[in-house]
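COMPLEX REQUEST
Ligand: S-adenosylmethionine
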Amino acid sequence: MDRVRADLARYYEHEAANRLRGRPSGFRLGLLDRFTEMIVAEGRRSVLDVGAGPATDASAFLDAGIVYTGVDLAVANGALAGEAGADVIAASMFDLPFRDETFSAGWSMSTLMHVPTDQVAVTMRSICRVLMRGAPLMIGQWGGRLGDIDSDHTVPGLPRLFALRTAAHNRALLAAHGTIERWEVRDAGPDGWEYHVAVVRLAS
Ligand SMILES: C[S@@+](CC[C@H](N)C(=O)[O-])C[C@H]1O[C@@H](n2cnc3c(N)ncnc32)[C@H](O)[C@@H]1O
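STATUS: Structure written out below.
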């Protein structure tokens, strides 16, 4: 495992073991509502949550009758998700343990900024491989103008990479894998941080 991934695994195993991650709140709830409504309206019945944490967002999908599967680097998140009645499998988004075109929709919140820029294309190809043709993939990620920072702002002594790319850069990286159907940039978090939200529609 390279250093970036080792740091992430250390931080997120710690986060899970100490139950630090809370429920979704704020604008995230609106994103969940709109995305679940959209995929239900399209007759889609399954979703893959990439970087699912302890299944933070599962209940919105499960309540809408959508079969939910999460993947997460931190093994301990699988047990937390199980307590909430959701499946989160320990796996890396670089190497997803599913057949081609398994899921009819994709969802990934606050995870892609942990991927170094030179690995975003391979990560996106890995995610898109397991989504059906024409599937929508909603991605939310932190961004901004600060570039790569190893931040231990949440737990001192446990740094993790935040690749804070500009909105134009993130949009271009995602547009290489489908049509951008929706794009939002929000001022958020600490100074200079933004939150970028995209719906990428895979080719039919
Ligand atoms: C900031 S948390 C977001 C969790 C959840 N999506 C949420 O928004 O509450 C980022 C998650 O991505 C996971 N992660 C980081 N790198 C990963 C990788 N290569 N493969 C799968 N999951 C990864 C971490 O373990 C962590 O749970």
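REMARKS: The longest helix spans residues 3-17. The beta strands are 46-50, 67-72, 87-90, 106-109, 136-144, 147-151, 160-164, 179-187, 193-201.
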